[in-house]
Amino acid sequence: MPAHDVLIIGAGLAGQRAALAAAQAGASVAIMSKVHPVRSHSVAAAGGINAAISVDDDWHSHAYDTVKGSDFLGDQDAIEIMCSEAPGEVMHLEHMGVTFHRNEKGEMDLRAFGGASMKRTAYVADITGQALLHVLYEQLMKHHETVERYEEWFTTSLLQDEQGRCAGVIARDVRSGRMEAFTAKNVILACGGAGQVYKPTTNGLIVTGDGIAMAYRAGAPLMDMEMVQYHPTCLVETGILITEGARGEGAHLLNANGERFMEKSAPNKMELASRDVVSRAEQIEINEGRGVGPGGRGIYLDVTVVPRKRTLEALREIVNLGKDFAGVDITREPITIRPGQHYIMGGVKTDIDGQTPIEGLYAAGEVACVSVHGGNRLGANSLLDTLIFGRRSGEHAAARAANMTMPELDTHAQLHRDADAIDAIIARPRDGRRVSEIKNELGEMMNKYAAVFRDEQGLQTARETIARLKEESEKAWIDDRGTVFNQDVLGAIELGYMIDCAETTVVGAIERKESRGAQYRTDFPERNDEEWLKHIDITLDGEQPKVSYSPVTITQWQPEERKY
Ligand SMILES: Cc1cc2nc3c(=O)[nH]c(=O)nc-3n(C[C@H](O)[C@H](O)[C@H](O)COP(=O)(O)OP(=O)(O)OC[C@H]3O[C@@H](n4cnc5c(N)ncnc54)[C@H](O)[C@@H]3O)c2cc1C
């Protein structure tokens, strides 16, 4: 049976950074991913990564912007760590070989991003995630003697010893269908977010909340799950993201009357207010009949105001996306966009070293909630979160591993339970609903009731629908009955993970009876610090989600009214 000091599930930016840090600290490390590492969703990140590296900038300013962006729900100790360590991390990336864009003086160039009080986003055109991920993967290969890679292995559950400590995982080799138990002194979940719970979403098909659900099922608390980010600029039909970098370069948002409507809700920051504010403003224009495009369901993003040469150089990927997916040359005409699901601020609750309350279990990146984003994430703060807390988790787990022996536990029962569950899915009679049908209904329903605007009635409908879909999913059938690359059966398992994520999102949204950050309740339209300046934590109690609260950590910035 494979055994490692530190076993990382997920090979996006958080996982790869954790692996390198743990290996450099002397641990024996393994990294597992259900897809080839460079196909992890971090590859899609476009606009850039925030760090106060300009001589005129200061990490305190970055931290304040982040606290304000979070609508004061972010934990300020974690935010201070992220922002103060950001410049060193970005420089480290550069030294490893990331070709950040440079200005005419040869210095690292920085672009404007939403909610930031100055230009502090380092970037590689609009393919920043790809550039970072490939450089980290080169480093992983360089450390091949200390980092074992399990590529195209799908984790089905976490192993725990009799004391409840995390002691490894059960996984399936996607290529052959073989099941295996892996023991580990520490497991770091770096499985990414859960965007596929919504339809449409900017997130790829693999972003199905696996890590969140596995941790939840093992007894770990989830935090801030109600906070779901809608990105203001997604293509109307497909939901494909048009990076915030476009507005950072100066693009305008226009309604059907040709008005820059952001003047009404964010007269100072205009299009560069935080994402929750811009998405709400767009949705109001659409709802009140000032939308554009088919059915008035969109808003114009006008990139033609950016010099064409600059667009072709700094936004070349979205020039291609515009042509390929909307038939629009964004350098010559506005493109129609709308708000779309993009990111989840919630996840597995951790401390500032990535530790969850389950001993031996860590989480980092979008799967985790150290709550640096609180109620709303600022653009270009997620890549930073993955790297800072990925590194810190890797270092902490390596140090913990140095002081303990390899767990000894009998893994047979759980290995067989997971294998039998997969065989049972494959053998299901074809008389229920298809997995894909249930997934579509779930996504469309979440996009209707748990979106930019929410209310009690809609959220209760969502909860009832999720309960029905959960039952149906337990009988849902698939086509592929084979073992080699059976993505169909993995899709059925992922559906179960997504339903857990949807349920905890809706339970949190029902619980929070106020409007803060990405949660806007039309029946409770005000922020209410007196009652709701606290995190909502959700744990699994038997079969049901159980709600509790935890305090928000405030170090130096007291809550105030948020204006942009
Ligand atoms: C289109 C787009 C553009 C974005 N642009 C930016 C940007 O410019 N700046 C910014 O800061 N943020 C951006 N973001 C957000 C940011 O990219 C993500 O939040 C971040 O990359 C997530 O990284 P991660 O390492 O946590 O997870 P991911 O990169 O999603 O990696 C998850 C890993 O977990 C593995 N995994 C999952 N489940 C299992 C399982 N069951 N078994 C085994 N392996 C599993 C996957 O294979 C993968 O390797 C963007 C997001 C999108 C969707």
Q: How is this structure best described in words?
A:
The chain has 564 residues and is of the alpha/beta class. Among the domains are: 231-339, Succinate dehydrogenase/fumarate reductase flavoprotein, catalytic domain (Flavocytochrome C3, Chain A, domain 1); 413-531, Up-down Bundle (Methane Monooxygenase Hydroxylase, Chain G, domain 1). 36% of the residues lie in helices and 19% in strands. The chain is built from 16 helices and 21 strands. The protein has helices at residues 13-24, 59-69, 76-96, 128-142, 210-217, 245-248, 262-265, 275-287, 308-314, 316-326, 382-402, 412-426, 435-449, 456-473, 487-511, 529-532; strands at 3-9, 29-33, 49-50, 110-111, 121-122, 147-151, 153-160, 166-173, 179-189, 222-223, 228-235, 252-254, 299-302, 335-344, 347-349, 361-363, 368-369, 453-454, 520-521, 534-541, 544-551. Strands 1, 2, 6, 7, 8, 9 and 16 form a 7-stranded mixed β-sheet that branches. A 5-stranded mixed β-sheet has the order 17-15-10-20-21. Helix 13 (435-449) runs antiparallel to helix 14. The chain is globular. The termini are far apart. The structure holds flavin-adenine dinucleotide. The site of flavin-adenine dinucleotide has 44 residues, from helix 1, strand 2, helix 4, strand 7 and helix 5. Flavin-adenine dinucleotide (FAD) binds at residues 9-15, 32-35, 37, 40-42, 44-49, 128-129, 154-155, 190-192, 202-203, 206-207, 210-211, 241, 343, 365-367, 380-383, 386.
